[in-house]
Structure prediction request, 736 residues.
Amino acid sequence: MATYVSWLLFITLTFSLLLCWSGASESDEKTYIVYMGDHPNGGFSASSHHTSMLEQAMGSSKASKSLLYSYKRSFNGFVARLTEEEMKKIASMKEVVSVFPNGKMQLHTTRSWDFMGFSQKVKRSPTVESDIIIGMLDTGVWPESESFNDNGLGLPPSKWNGTCQSSSNFTCNNKIIGAHYYRVAGSFPPGDIPSPRDSEGHGTHTTSTVAGRVVKNASLFDLGAGTARGGVPSTRIAVYKICWSDGCYAADTLAAFDDAIADGVDIISISVGWPFAQDYFKDPISIGAFHSMKNGILTSNSAGNAGPSAGSIVNVSPWSLSVAASTIDRKFVTDVKLGSNKVYEGVAVNTFILNQSMYPVVWAGNVPNTKEGVDGSLSRYCFNNSLDPTLVKDKIVLCDQLIDGQEPLDAGAIGTIMQDSRPMDVAYLFPLSASYLGQTDGAAVYLYINKTSKPTAIIEKSIAKKDILAPFVVSFSSRGPNPITTDILKPDLTAPGVNIVAAWSEATTVTGIPGDKRVVPYNIISGTSMSCPHASGTAAYVKSFHPTWSPAAIKSAIMTTAFPMSSKKNPEAEFAYGSGHLNPVKAANPGLVYDAGETDYVQFLCGQGYSNQSLQLLTGSNTTICTASNNGTVWDLNYPSFALSGLANTAVTRVFHRTVTNVGSPVSTYNATVVPPPGLTVKIEPGILSFNAVGQTQKFVLNVSGVINGNVLSGSLVWDDGVYQVRSPIIASALS
Ligand SMILES: *[C@@H]1O[C@H](CO)[C@@H](O)[C@H](O)[C@H]1NC(C)=O
Ligand SMILES: *[C@@H]1O[C@H](CO)[C@@H](O)[C@H](O)[C@H]1NC(C)=O
Ligand SMILES: *[C@@H]1O[C@H](CO)[C@@H](O)[C@H](O)[C@H]1NC(C)=O
Ligand SMILES: *[C@@H]1O[C@H](CO)[C@@H](O)[C@H](O)[C@H]1NC(C)=O
Ligand SMILES: *[C@@H]1O[C@H](CO)[C@@H](O)[C@H](O)[C@H]1NC(C)=O
Ligand SMILES: *[C@@H]1O[C@H](CO)[C@@H](O)[C@H](O)[C@H]1NC(C)=O
Ligand SMILES: *[C@@H]1O[C@H](CO)[C@@H](O)[C@H](O)[C@H]1NC(C)=O
Ligand SMILES: *[C@@H]1O[C@H](CO)[C@@H](O)[C@H](O)[C@H]1NC(C)=O
Ligand SMILES: *[C@@H]1O[C@H](CO)[C@@H](O)[C@H](O)[C@H]1NC(C)=O
Ligand SMILES: *[C@@H]1O[C@H](CO)[C@@H](O)[C@H](O)[C@H]1NC(C)=O
Ligand SMILES: *[C@@H]1O[C@H](CO)[C@@H](O)[C@H](O)[C@H]1NC(C)=O
Prediction:
C-alpha cells in the first residue's frame, strides 16, 4: 500500500519539478550536481578547482556562496545553486561529464533466509566475515535494536577509515562502526532528526536483513515469530543516511557514495531509486556504483516497485546488481466473518484483536461526509475526509479501494474491509483492524450489507499460512526490458521481498500513520527494498570466502547459481526474475565466473556512444579511449546472462563473446548444454572447456540466430563439469 501511495506521490512531485524547471527565469536558481568523473591524483584541491569553475560561469562574487558541496574523496564533482544559463556554461566545460538537477528519489519500500536453504548452520568464515563492512545507504538505523548488538565482536577492522557522527545521542559500537547523515542542499524537513538515527523504519529493516545479529523469538505481535537474522550476522555496518521524510536526494546519495568508498566498505546496499531509469551518468546511483566498482566494491540495488508494467525497472547499470522481489512460502491471511457466518479470507498483516465478537458494518458509499459536500460516489473510495464520523464510529467500513487506512481511522471506524482489483500477493499493514478481500469476495460483502437489515462483521487477527505457490515474482516488482540498454538483461535475479520480518525503528510506529500507536522492535514489510538486502548479504557471504574477487565475479557467482524460476507463474519470465532466485549457499561455490573490470565497462560504454572526453574523465586516463578495436558491442560485455532483441519477424544474428574464469576444481572439463529460445538457433564454440588450474580463463562464442517471434523467448546455457552447473539465461525479445 505504502508503495502505491508513495509512487503516485512521486509522479506528482517529478512532474512539478520538471514544470518549474522548464519555467525557470534567469534569476531562478536550482540545485545542480556537476559530475566530473574520476578523482584526479596528487595535490589536487577539489574545492578550489570547483570554485574557480563557478567563477568562470558566474563571476567571483557569487561563486563561493553558490558552491554547496564538493565530492573529492572517491570521485570528482560538486553541488551548486545555478541559474539555467550558468548550468549550461558549466555543462559545456571540458572537465564536466554531466550536469543534472538535485532530484528526489524514493525508497523501494525471517524465515526468508531459511526459505532459500541458507540455514543458521551453513558453513561460515566468521573471522573473515567480521572483517567485512557493509555500507547501507538508506534512512539510517535504530542503533539500540537488539539486531545491532556487538556481543563478541572485536574492534573494527584496521582498514576502516570512516567516522561516527554521534548527533542526537546516536552512538556507534563494534557492530555499527560508522554513521553519517547527508543533507547537502536545503534544510531538514520539520520533525526529522538531524542524525544517522532512523525515524522511518526502512533503513533499520534493510540493515538488519543484510547484517543483523541472531535474535530469537522476534515477531510482530507474535506474527511471523521466529529467529530474526541477517545474511551475514558477523559483518560490520557503516550507516549513510541519505533519505529523509521528503525523499532521498541525488546530491546526498552521491556524497554518501563518495564517503563510503573512501571509508573502506566492502559491499554497498541501496534500496532507493528514480521512478524511471536514467542515463548512466545522470543517475547518482549508477555513478556511485561505477566508482564503487573501480574500487572493488559491489553495489546491490533494488529493481523498483513499479511493476508489473514492462520496462518499469530502474537501477540498471551493468556494473551493479539489480534485484527483483518474490514471495517466500509464508503468507499472512486475515479472515473477515459476517453476521451470516460466512467467512472470507483476505490478505493483510492485522495485529489487532477486537473486543466485541461482532461490529456493525457499513458500505462507505452509504456514509458520505455530506457536511463537507461529499457524496457516495466519492466516499465509497474512502478518500480523505470523505466519511461521516457520526455514521462510521465504532463500525467496520467497506471501502471500494485498497487504501492505507488513514481515513477510516480518522473517522473513528473500528476496522476496514477493502475491495479492489489489485492483485492479492502482498499483505500490507494498516493502522486499524483491516483486511483486503479483492473483488469477488468484496462484492459478496457488499451484497450482504445491501441485503441485510442490521449487517455485522468481524475482522480476525492475521494468521500465517504456507504459500504453496512460492516463489513467484510479486506484482509490484519492476519488470524489464531494460529501458537504457535493451540487450543487458535486467533484473539480474530475484530474492525474497514480500512480508519480510526484520528490525524496526522505535521512533516511528508499525505504519507511521498518525493515530497508529504500535511502537515495535520488529516489523513485517514488503518491497524490492527488502529483496535487495538479501542479495547484498549474499554478496558479503561470497566475499567472506573469496575476499579478492571483483564485484563482477561476485555478481556472476550470485547470478549463475540462482535457481531457475518458472514462466508458468510469471509470464514475463526473465523480465520478472532475471537469472532466477537467489541461492546463497551455492553462490559461494560457482565453479566458473564471468569476470569484468573497468576496461570492460569502458569498452561497453564506447559502443554505447559515450564520448572519448567523458570516458577519459571517468577513467582518469589521457589516452584516446574509443577506437575501432576497443568499441565493445553490448553483446560482448562479459555479462553472466545473454539478451538479444530485434524487430519482430525479421532475421537477426547476435554473436556473444565471453570469457570464463575457473574458480572451481583445478582440473575440470565443462560441457555446454544449450536450450535455445523457441524458434532460434544457438551455436556454441567450443562446446567443451577444459581447465588445469584455478584462475585459468577460457573463451567461447555463442551465436544466436533466427527470427524473434515473441516478447519473451527464454533459453539457457549451462556449463556443467559434473560438480558445478553454471547457468545463464538466453533471452530474445521482439522490439515493438
Ligand atoms: C536519545 O535516544 C532515545 C532512544 O534511545 C530517544 O528516546 C531520545 O529522544 C534521544 N534523545 C535525543 C536528545 O535525541
Ligand atoms: C516470544 O515472545 C512472545 C511475545 O512477543 C512471548 O509471548 C513468548 O513467550 C516468547 N516465547 C519464547 C519462547 O520466548
Ligand atoms: C581515508 O580518508 C582520508 C580522508 O578522506 C583520505 O585522505 C585517505 O586517502 C583515506 N584512506 C584510504 C585508505 O582510503
Ligand atoms: C478493548 O477494551 C479495552 C479495555 O476495555 C480498551 O482499553 C481497548 O481500547 C478496547 N479496544 C478496542 C479496539 O476497542
Ligand atoms: C490524506 O491525509 C493525510 C494526512 O492526514 C496525507 O498524508 C495524505 O497525503 C492525504 N491523502 C490524500 C490522497 O490526499
Ligand atoms: C442496495 O442496493 C440498491 C440498488 O443499488 C440501493 O438502491 C439500496 O439503497 C441499497 N441498500 C443499502 C442498504 O445499501
Ligand atoms: C575517440 O577518438 C578516436 C580517435 O581519435 C576516434 O576514432 C573515435 O571516433 C572517438 N570516439 C568517440 C566516441 O568520439
Ligand atoms: C594528461 O596529460 C597532461 C598533459 O599532457 C599531463 O599533465 C597529465 O599528467 C596527464 N594525466 C594523466 C592522468 O596521465
Ligand atoms: C563504435 O560503435 C558505435 C555503434 O556501433 C558506432 O556508432 C561508432 O562509430 C563506433 N566507434 C568507433 C570508434 O569505431
Ligand atoms: C552465426 O550463425 C549464423 C547463422 O548460422 C551464421 O550466418 C553466422 O556466420 C554465424 N556467425 C559467427 C560469427 O559464427
Ligand atoms: C561431457 O561430454 C563428454 C563427451 O560427450 C562426456 O563423456 C562427459 O561425461 C560429459 N560430462 C558431463 C559432466 O556431462
